[in-house]
Amino acid sequence: MPKNKHVIITGGKTGGHLFPGIAVAQALMEKDPSTKILFVGTSAPFETDTLARYGFAHKSIISRPIKGKNIFAKAWSASLVGISLFQALVIIIAFRTNFILGVGGFSSFALVLAGRILFRDTAIHEQNAFPGMTNRMLSKIARTRFISFKETKGMPENETTLLVGNPVRRPLSTPLENIKTDDSVLNQINADDFLILVTGGSQGAASINRAFTDAAAMMKDTRQLFIIHQTGKNAEAQIRQFYAAGDIRHKAAAFFYDMPAIQDRADLVISRAGAGTVSELCIKGKPAILVPYPYAADDHQTANARFLADQGACIMIADKDLTGETLLAAIEDLQHDTNKRSRMADTMKALAMPHGADLIADRILGGNISKKENNVPA
Questions:
Q1: Residue 210, number of CB atoms within 10 A of its CB
Q2: From CA 265, how far away is CA 219, in angstroms rounded?
Q3: List of residues 6+ apart from 158 with CB closer than 8 A
Q4: pLDDT for 304-336, tens place per residue?
Q5: Cβ contact 185:266 at 8 Å
């Protein structure tokens, strides 16, 4: 494999796009530490803070989403395409870039397009079965398309579209470093505690927060229960106040940077059903109650959750049906049925595609993905 690759990974803003990019970057550094990696995306604090936490360099460009805005906002966003394209060309040349990987999100469009203009190698990764608008456009531009599901729509069905699964990031070098208190949280969790991880993704989920706190208020015996609750920024103070008034052992925070390490210890996960989350849960074999975000593009989260539920790998509750009562019933069912949780965990693992990051890294470094690897069931 050629040495001294200079790779730009572009996209992000939300964890669903950013974390697969981080996973690929980690795999690249493990395979060839001489690889130079630059993330290019937005100046959103979540994106910049997360990349700083993982130790990767980052540059931002001017870019705005077009989908879902009124006609005036769309016109303004379109006018910025020329500026972002110029910025992308400058960054690619200055970084002496060999390869550009787009991981979704509107900021990736200019970089992948500029890469083709400059005759650099380009690829996109699509996490969901229903590609977002940016990747639908870039699928016609990028030389290679990496997909996570056999059922991914709208991608060319030829040798340049490769089934690899969803890259899953490695844990941070300091496990659970951002949820430590004066006494380590892990030291507070007893071996026989039932640990529930509650998360609405990087932005939080108001309906999950509301339903879970309602459910927690109705729980009768919480002595062997420990909750780790990722609340999202807007709900952090309110939910911390809720727990402070009760007697449930817990840790609540807006965001946990080392989610993989937390998932490892969880006995049950309550979450949205984004592709990244689903992939991590499958690889780790974690029983889950999934509540798909109802306004996701093309309702792809419902498709993700329904696929797992139909296999017996999770319990799916539609957002419109989510209440404290329905959630509590599902929690108690799984908490007290060890065999059911074990069956769900085994089914999750059977559906996993754990090598996505390595397969993409191999391709970037000049290797090939074998036909056998490219036909791993999604």
A1: 17
A2: 22
A3: none
A4: 899 899 999 999 999 999 999 999 999 999 999
A5: no
